[in-house]
Amino acid sequence: MPTKKELLSQPIQHIDIKQHNVVPLIDAMQSMAYSSRDAARAASIYDMMLRDTDCGVILCLAGSLISAGLQKVFIDLIRNNMVDAIVSTGANIVDQDFFEALGFNHYIAGDEYKYGAGDADLRELMIDRIYDTFIDEEELRICDETIHQITNSLEHRPYSSREFIREMGAYLVKEGKTPAAGGRDSIILAAYEKNVPIFCPAFSDCSAGFGLVAHQHARQGKPMVSIDSAKDFYEITQLKIANPTTGLLMIGGGVPKNFAQDIVVAADVLGVEASMHKYAIQITVADARDGALSGSTLKEASSWGKVDLTYEQMVFSEATLALPLIAGYAFHKKAHAARKGKQWATILNQVPVTV
Amino acid sequence: MPTKKELLSQPIQHIDIKQHNVVPLIDAMQSMAYSSRDAARAASIYDMMLRDTDCGVILCLAGSLISAGLQKVFIDLIRNNMVDAIVSTGANIVDQDFFEALGFNHYIAGDEYKYGAGDADLRELMIDRIYDTFIDEEELRICDETIHQITNSLEHRPYSSREFIREMGAYLVKEGKTPAAGGRDSIILAAYEKNVPIFCPAFSDCSAGFGLVAHQHARQGKPMVSIDSAKDFYEITQLKIANPTTGLLMIGGGVPKNFAQDIVVAADVLGVEASMHKYAIQITVADARDGALSGSTLKEASSWGKVDLTYEQMVFSEATLALPLIAGYAFHKKAHAARKGKQWATILNQVPVTV
Amino acid sequence: MPTKKELLSQPIQHIDIKQHNVVPLIDAMQSMAYSSRDAARAASIYDMMLRDTDCGVILCLAGSLISAGLQKVFIDLIRNNMVDAIVSTGANIVDQDFFEALGFNHYIAGDEYKYGAGDADLRELMIDRIYDTFIDEEELRICDETIHQITNSLEHRPYSSREFIREMGAYLVKEGKTPAAGGRDSIILAAYEKNVPIFCPAFSDCSAGFGLVAHQHARQGKPMVSIDSAKDFYEITQLKIANPTTGLLMIGGGVPKNFAQDIVVAADVLGVEASMHKYAIQITVADARDGALSGSTLKEASSWGKVDLTYEQMVFSEATLALPLIAGYAFHKKAHAARKGKQWATILNQVPVTV
Amino acid sequence: MPTKKELLSQPIQHIDIKQHNVVPLIDAMQSMAYSSRDAARAASIYDMMLRDTDCGVILCLAGSLISAGLQKVFIDLIRNNMVDAIVSTGANIVDQDFFEALGFNHYIAGDEYKYGAGDADLRELMIDRIYDTFIDEEELRICDETIHQITNSLEHRPYSSREFIREMGAYLVKEGKTPAAGGRDSIILAAYEKNVPIFCPAFSDCSAGFGLVAHQHARQGKPMVSIDSAKDFYEITQLKIANPTTGLLMIGGGVPKNFAQDIVVAADVLGVEASMHKYAIQITVADARDGALSGSTLKEASSWGKVDLTYEQMVFSEATLALPLIAGYAFHKKAHAARKGKQWATILNQVPVTV
């Protein structure tokens, strides 16, 4: 059996879409069929979304994407004003992005581990597996503990996940986990610096949860930090109200997809007639036939009044293949040239803190 | 085009597993292959889980299951002491179960609507579609508004979703939405009466969110109700600590799967060496090959120290086909005969409220 | 490592739909959603197909179904006049059905073999794997060799696969591989006795191919047996012409699905205006989104003029779960009570042999 | 409703991998996860396969690939000595490649047609649909009829599909359906000119079948052309014997995958100890969990002694996305620089015709 060191020797490396001009490739795919044509149409919708400077772009992340080598894609979208808010599962933002921001890596697992043949051995070595990727669980525990420390440093009150993640950004700056200070760039840091709010509506459902549980355990019966998921919903709805034209770039489904779609209805509940999301793209392999939200078509979302039918496109592909093409297309077409970031975090700073 | 009344004329009816003795069928499937054998093995693991009276059974629900005619299955599991805690998406519990508890129905949609051909028309009629099922959006708005009223009636402090859902159960009793008072049975009611805690770790990501947003909007700058997802995680971890032997019956993946698996690690974070989930079943059609959690194998979860390898089974099937067979098997085998409910809600009542 | 004998110790056992009255279960599923409702509708279409005594029923088989424990389902359909012709992959008919007719078994493989962890060991033991099922390759070689002997015994001319498989049925009778003579029942035998023609349009693509190759190798430059796939197509088209009303019960996709659908067009090519298949059911997990025929919807087939839109149903399920329910429903509803077999083999005996 | 002319106005255009240097993109994907890393590994295996000049490369085609814009990829592989034999479904070679060689096109269908909403209308207009692609059925009938004419022109005896397709190539040359004569290039033509044999083991299961049925109908009781699928198997096995080192590049599964894998066993049946396929790649979205061959892993094939475990890679992607990357990588790496075509058609010309 290989040693832990041997197993954790080849780090995942994040693709740099700036290095790959896929515009001619995607242009060629526009006249093909199936996923290639769908990917090309999705790319052109993302391009339109960015050229429509009224449009606020909401990026939704589900699945294990950062561990898969897509971190830099999202960083580049943020730094180039190609995304204005992020709704994500906790794992992507905390266990994976913040984890790498702390200096840790994900590792390539050999093909023979994909289907679980070595999982008992991995358990003994404290190596966690995500399909074909390894994580050092001891490093992950440090990530959990860092969240614990950040939590302990905060005022005792309810926080939206957005507020909490902003504190994580501040932590990275303070601790020198920035490129300027010799550290790495990260989604949290880039979003912090570019005023892009990040929401994890199921925030305790990840490494952050461990830190929070430790905090709350120690504070039982005393004032403590809590995470108010309703506040997340309230805040992101404010964005829809402030910026009526919106577009969704969704990788995977799950809570982020549902949450971001729902803000149209939530605005309506607050008495503001909100337009449906004008643009919507989803990359997923989920099947529609089990009726679950993750694979449900964007047409279905239009029956709910959430997504407009005109510019929507599902792309049936695992994201590591399709996203570099779609995001890279918009980048190299310079769709964002005339675009400024919406600086949405500044709007949210006006939402009163919960007392 | 049909009228709204015509479109909403055939209600979904919930299957009653008590009426279908599938034991001989499942026994026959034990010596076949593929999904039938997997379903048979899952059924036998659920049977074992229930006979192991030390074991606390955690039911995880993702996907649109209640709208699909599975509500009564879950009610029967609760009322027959076959489940001790539930972790669910909000949609199943609020938009669908609570919605039906209020007296509303889901409706059968014709095959021609499945792929979105009529979605523009549905939008105009305020009919929402879930694949092959219709919902009257006007009724759903009443459901949202009921949550709003419940929220307004509560003390202003952070709540776990479990605490909030318990208040929804109390509301049903108070309003006579019970079989005894001529109303319908529901998951929330049965769980309320049987002391089965229900957690929705992403609670604002559903109809409940609309009511909560309305509440918080009206209370900006003043004390308000908030939903603390960290408290959810803390509470369910307490259950793992109080009852070390646990089993998971998971329908779909998503947040419920991750959340319930994670409590093993969370207990460890709190300094209690917790055993992995001893039994685990998941019914899903999600693919493993995109690396996302929903389709990740239970073997993968064992690398994380969350699920034991001995008694785990994935079943590749859409749930409406496989669950009545698996749950019905355990029911008709009387696996629960010697079992008492764990009454876990009583343990949680000892967790202090957040101040 | 276990021995070959240990690995091949638990035979696959074929489910007996006659023992499981699933009518109430399927009736309950008619008012649910997703796959359960689709399965219920498919069952009712199969029921209609059988009650429409003008209708000739064509069963299409792709995937490894016989090895999975479904052999007896198909035998029961044949012996109860519930199917009039079969179009199949070669593997189901030769490698699996004929193989079992010779007295051999398929075996249950442990879950740990499903994803290939033991394949190198299996190779050394001459054990072939189909997902979670084992086959003794030495026994399979006997099956190949038996085909070789049958081929050698035939007149040297082109055969349709249907003619060849009929000779395989005659062989089973001659060699006492029948229940009457203490052997087992099989699809080939039942079809032989009930005059149900079986077509394998890609006949050399299976164990039969090995026997045929051996024959042709020995006969190079001399008259030999050949397998004329065009004759298959000609013959089955004659059935459509002789019996205009037809229904398809398709398990899986592939060549059988395409071939059976195409006979509507082929009849047209021969100058006979043929009606589309009046009824069509397909059970499959194949995805529509790659554009391949196996997962293509039956609606798509209607654009080709092959399948009528009125009574068609796709069922998204692995077949071992759904087929016992669908076939069992029609059987226990006695849909076939008034039905006589079409005895289609007698029509085909009038097609001249190829000279 | 749009007219037929309006519906058939945007032809599918075939991607030209020579125009897109994807080497840096694929190199970047080697250190990512999931499908991107798998695609990168598959690309590197194809690269190795081509550099191993002993290796004969067998390309397997299933699914509707030519209609999807991949025709030129396969033509380029043939013309650049990157493939030595082709095993395909009939649809790709006859209905689609030969069809385009005759001067016809496939057309882009709007997204709204994908799920069957317009199929009844399409039927009336004689437009056939493949997912998101349209075909003029009147043109397809001309293709059928052309096959009929070619068949009528042949000597009356059994043909392998390879022999028949070679005659189709000769027809294209004779009729000036070549680039040199102002026509288009095609797979059949390129293969004819480069001595690359093409096998369609289920040859009658496509447009060719219609022409053959018409021929055989007119010739009933008289000598006729027949298509001997056993001869196909015999011939391709001769290639394995003549050239022991082989690699498979498989797009989709079905008959081509099974057929090409089986030649290892067939060689063994003929008394020649054949090595397993040394290299194997499959691009597919088929699921392994239904046990069918199309989605079965290449590891499973190794248990049958067909595929070596060392250099095999499944890629989970719809082919129009993954194939241009994989084939383009090998092309732009000039993996074929030192490679000459195997000219395998010349070996097969030595197999005696069937008498």
Describe this structure in words.
The structure is a homotetramer of 355-residue chains. Chain A is of the alpha/beta class and 355 residues long. Chain A has a single domain (11-348), classed as Deoxyhypusine synthase (Deoxyhypusine Synthase, 3-Layer(aba) Sandwich). Helices cover 47% and strands 14% of the residues of chain A. Chain A has 15 helices and eleven strands. Chain A has helices at residues 4-7, 23-29, 34-51, 66-79, 90-101, 119-125, 137-152, 161-174, 187-193, 207-218, 229-242, 254-269, 298-303, 319-332, 344-348; strands at 56-61, 85-88, 107-108, 127-130, 133-136, 158-159, 198-199, 226-227, 246-251, 277-284, 307-316. In chain A, the strands form three sheets. In chain A, strands 7-2-1-9-10-11 form a six-stranded parallel sheet, with helices on both faces. The mean pLDDT of chain A is 96. Chains in contact: A-B, A-C, A-D, B-C, B-D, C-D.
What's the quick description here?
4 copies of one chain form a homotetramer. Chain A is α/β, with parallel strands linked by helices and 355 residues long. Helices cover 47% and strands 14% of the residues of chain A.
Topology of this structure?
4 copies of one chain form a homotetramer.
Chain A lengths: L3 H4 L15 H7 L4 H18 L4 E6 L4 H14 L5 E4 L1 H12 L5 E2 L10 H7 L1 E4 L2 E4 H16 L5 E2 L1 H14 L12 H7 L4 E2 L7 H12 L7 E2 L1 H14 L3 E6 L2 H16 L7 E8 L13 H6 L3 E10 L2 H14 L11 H5 L7
Helix pairs in contact in A: 2-3, 3-14, 4-14, 5-7, 7-10, 8-9, 11-12
- The fraction of residues assigned to DSSP E strands of chain A is 5-15%
Q: Please give the most extensive interface between any two protein chains, plus how many residues each contributes.
A: A-B, 89 and 89 residues
Structural category of chain A: alpha/beta
E-strand count of chain A: 11
Total count of domains of chain A: 1
Could you give the distance between the termini of chain A? 55 Å
CATH fold title of chain A: Deoxyhypusine Synthase
Low-confidence stretches of chain A: none
Helix content of chain A: 40-55%
> What series of H and E elements makes up the topology of chain A?
HHHEHEHEHEEHEHHEHEHEHEHEHH
Write down the overall geometry of chain A. Answer: globular
CATH class categorisation of chain A = Alpha Beta
Could you report the average pLDDT of chain A, rounded to the nearest whole number?
A: 96
Radius of gyration of chain A: 20 Å
